[in-house]
Amino acid sequence: MLNASPFIQAGLLLVGYFVFTLFCYRKVIVTKFQNHKQRHAKTLIAYASESGSGEQLARELHVKLKSQGDPAICISLNQVTEQQLKQADTLLIIASTYGEGEAPDNGRHFLGKLDTFKSTLAHLNYAVLALGDKAYGQYCQFGLMLNQALQCKHCTPLFKPILVDKLDENSIHEWYSNLLSKGLLEEAVPRSTLSSTQLPIQHFKLTGRQQVNLNSPGAPLFEINLAVPSDLTWQAGDIARLHIENTVREYSIASVPQEQSLKLLVREQKHPTGELGLGSGWLCHHADLDSTQAFSIRANPKFNPLDEHKKLILIGNGSGLAGLRGHLKHRELKQHHENWLLYGERCAEHDLPWHLELTEWFNAKHLTEIDLAFSRQTADSNIRVGRCHSGYVQDALLAQQAKLKDWVNNGAAIFICGSLQGMAKDVESMLLDILGQPVLSRLERQGLYRKDVY
C-alpha cells in the first residue's frame, strides 16, 4: 500500500513555493494590475498642486467616486498619457496657479505633451476647478490655460471653469453641485465636509528670536523658535502658516518634531515705503517673547523626505536654508549620511546662518560635501568647512558639475528650497545644461527632483 505522506509533503512544498513566489513578485503584480486599471479607467481625476490643497481635493473626490462604484483613477497632471485620455470619457482637473500665472511642478509638462497628442479627443468631456489667489494678477491663469487647450483639442466642457479664491468654500461647493447635476456624483456633498480643507489653528509660544546675519549687506535674517505641544507632528518639508490680521503668511519649517520646537528662518521684508512686512515684521520685531502666536501646519508632500535611503543633494539660498535644514535633521535621525549642501548668500563675513551646526555635521560625516557661494565677499576666517565660490549657487553647481553627474548617476535626489525668482530658475537652467532635459525629467517623474520655492 502506498504511503501518502511524500505526496502530501510534495504538495505542501509546491504550495509554499507558489506562495513564496507571489510574495517575491507582489510589487510587480500590484503594479501591473494598477497599470491595467489606469489604462482602462473611464473617469480620470488629474491634479496640479503646489501647496497640496489641490491634491487633497482631488483625492477626496476620488474617494467619493470609488464609494459609488466608479473605478476612477487619480494622478498628477504630468502623469496623464494620451492613451489614458483616449480610453477615458471624463477628465476632472483640479489645478492650482502660483506666482504670476505659473503651473505647479507636477502639472507644468501637461500642456506641452497635449500639443504633441495626435488624437483630437473629441469624445472627452472635462471640467476644471482652478485654484488661485486674487491678490495675484494672473488669477487662476493655469486653470484657464488648461480649459483653452482642451477646447482646442475639441473636448467638451461639462461646465465653465470654476475659479476658487484661497480655497473659498462656496466655490468648492459649486464644483460639487455641478458634478452632481451632471450625474457624476450620486449624492450632494454637505458643506460641513468642505471645511476639511481648512487647517486647524493652534497657538504656539514664541520662545526665541535671534538675528543670524548681523551687519549683512542684505536684509536681516532671524531664527525664530516656538514651543509646540508634544503631540504635534509634521514632516521635514512641511510649512508653518502664521495667521495674522485675517491673512496667512507661510514659512518653511527648519526643525523636526523630535526637537520639540518649531524653528523658522525669517527674512525681514519691507515695503517701498519702508514699512515692515506684516508677517516678518511681527515675528522678527513686534511680537513679544513668551506671547502665543496663531499657527497651522500645512502638509507639503511635494517636498517631504524620500521613502528610501538615497544620496541627497540640497540646493538653496537665503531663508531657504530652513527647509534644507529640516531634511538634514530628519536624515541625521534616520542615519542617512550621504548629503551634499550647496548654499548661496551675499557676504561670507556676515551671512553664515547655522554655520556651526553645518560644521559639526560635516566633521561627523553627516554632510559629506558643502559648497558655499557668495555674491559679494567670498573669503572669511569664519568659514571652517566646505568649498567657497564667487557668484551664485548655480556657479557652484557649474564648478562641481563632474561631482554632480557622479552623484546623480549613483541615484542621488535633488531638493531645492529658496527664492523662485533668480535662484530656483537659474539653478534649474544650470541643471538642464549639466544633466540634460531627459535626466532631469526622469528625476522629476521618479520623485527625485523636488522643489519648495517662493
From TrEMBL:
Pfam families: Flavodoxin_1
GO cellular component terms, A-Z: cytosol
Domain FAD-binding FR-type: 199-306
GO molecular function, one term: flavin adenine dinucleotide binding
Alphabetical UniProt keywords: Electron transport, Flavoprotein, FMN, Membrane, Transmembrane, Transmembrane helix, Transport
UniProt entry tagged with the keyword Endoplasmic reticulum: no
Residue ranges crossing the lipid bilayer per the database entry: 6-25
EC number: 1.6.2.4
Start and end residues of each Flavodoxin-like domain: 43-180
Leading EC class: oxidoreductase
Cross-referenced InterPro entries: FAD-bd_FR_type, Flavdoxin-like, Flavodoxin/NO_synth, Flavoprotein-like_sf, FNR_nucleotide-bd, Riboflavin_synthase-like_b-brl
The name this protein goes by in its record: NADPH--hemoprotein reductase
